[in-house]
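Might you be able to consider the sequence and fold that I enclose below?
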Amino acid sequence: MQTHLADFIKDTAAGREADAILRSCVHCGFCTATCPTFQLLGDELDGPRGRIYLIKQMLEGQAVSEKTQLHLDRCLSCRSCETTCPSGVRYHRLLEIGREVLEERVPRSLAARATRFLLTEALPRPWIFKPAVALGQLFRPLLPRVLAEKVPMPAGGSEQPWPRPRAHRRKMVALAGCVQPTLTPNTNAATARVLDRLGITLSEVPGAACCGALRYHLHAQEKARDDMRQVIDAWWPLVDSGQVEAFVMTASGCGEHVRVYGEVLADDPAYAAKAARIAALTRDVSEVLASESERLAELLAGSSKAGGQRVAFHSPCTLQHAQKIRGVVEALLNTAGYQLVPVADPHLCCGSAGTYSISQPVLAGQLRDGKLAALTAASPDVLVTANIGCQTHLQSGSSLPVRHWIELIDERLNGLD
């Protein structure tokens, strides 16, 4: 694709990166076949190829409007198009650059700005989010339906305690996260119990809460970088002293973001090297268990807990498209004796996509209902996923429990009911 970027951006780092991405696109349109919003709306401008043209026109100095903003806002950033693209177009980075320019050129309404402010200030802070959720859940029956659907309810599964500390030689650290401790506190506890059986001590570090992804994708980049620096500051003493083997991510959305810390903070002289080191030490929990597959299989073979439940697995976009971890969770569940049922179109997004279910509730609801129809078509006993956002979003429309897959491994391994 030929480009003629405008003077305001062509000689900047972002402009050079955008130019290279635009030139790698060959207009083939393969991406439209796997784009969730194009499938729903059938509009070229609501698919990756159309959005690329909109961003190109904007970066070449053409006028932009609220219509441009609408089409870019409708993108889930699911990156399914990147998995499909034969040319390796880094669409997500082009979208980030385009959205940043657009935020400066097209002001949002007062209501939209207020919503984004509340999301960026409340969600990353557990001391605000937890009481707000409790209050919303208390008055949920009295709220109008449109508001009640926005109140997150605890996802499936019951909370169990963390294992008693043991002096394992191997030590890993889990990210507590911002909304996960409130909505699904058993996720990290279950991970700790499973790793304890594998001879690994898992802990959380005070001060390392929100990874920064929420604010970053709401265009509050500087606040997001502050969140990232806070995590790095909390974790770095363990890295510096060699006390930690890996940072374990139980939410694939957080894992995807922590893995790009080195890129996002590359221009920060005080944090660039630290960020890159922490990104290199980051592992999804499925990768950790897969690396211990032989030992895990031995332990599972000796477990008294019966398997055999029919399970439908939803692979979050941040796991399969961003981190490119595919088939690992499914193999672990099979090893644990669960029966994986087939799921049609597993590449499609469930509609959660960070705060997308709040900013685009109609599209998010349609995507959720379509995903649930695919997940439940083979009559599973339980639905599982690997990201807190997907888990709560799917649970909001499901009568079946939606759980984190690590809880099923934990129950099978530790004989929990």
